[in-house]
Amino acid sequence: MKLARDPQGLTGLLGGARGEGLSIGLVPTMGFLHEGHLSLVDLARRRSDFVAVSIFVNPLQFGPGEDLDHYPRDLERDLALLEDRGVDLVFSPSVDAMYPLGPPQVTVDPGPMARRLCGQFRPDHFRGVLTVVARLFGLFRPDLAVFGQKDFQQAVLIRRMVQDLQLGVDVVMGPIVREDDGLALSSRNVYLSSKEREEAVGLREALLAVQSGFRQGARSVTRLLSILKEEVGRYPVLSLQYGEIVDPLTLEPISEAHAGAVAVLAAHCGRTRLIDNHILEN
Length: 282
Known about the structure:
Layout: E1 2-4, H1 7-19, E2 24-29, H2 35-47, E3 50-55, H3 75-84, E4 89-91, H4 95-98, H5 118-121, H6 125-140, E5 144-148, H7 152-165, E6 170-174, H8 194-200, H9 202-215, H10 221-232, E7 238-246, E8 262-269, E9 272-279
Parallel strand pairs: 1-4, 2-3, 2-5, 3-4, 5-6
Antiparallel strand pairs: 7-8, 8-9
């Protein structure tokens, strides 16, 4: 496994793969890897010849008062996990290497879909996400890029950016990986106290309650969201920030649920903000 710490080194290391005509699969991450990230690596391996992972805590996507300075990091551990998974190349630049001219003057406007859901509460977040992803796509020129379903809004916005700007990258969404009790894996789970960790499972339970209601014939989104809020309310540590059922392509709210619609939520568990979602099935 090769390691690049700046764009110049990355270009040199990618040259061999391109020269051999290998398809390049990219998994962008912010590090502190868990099995959810590694499942995306496995998916990239199945779909491409040469697997690259980026590890970069992107300051552009953190707002004032968020956890940029305290975001968990452990590069040595991450590299060991990726090497065990058969990754070919890791790109782990410093902020100065990634943005040598300072914060970018030109950024990607994520459009109206970014002003909903998480974007209501993190107004500049998706501009930062799309800007760094566009930069990574420019550096790697990947054939495909893999993102996780847990960050559903992010994946939809990246896919739309690729379509609208004709970037020529196949954006693949990997399924959510969960703990045995159903909590979606997240690097931020390390922030949870033991009590918060016990109650965080309420997010998954709420989504499963919505799925159960849907399978029993409930189609009114008002009714299904009432089920969601009632279930979250059973866990005193959880404070629901939003819960919606949306169209999977536009992220717009719908009034009647259908198979393929997505139940999405965000909540604070103590001081830690967690997100989760579930694609409704018949």
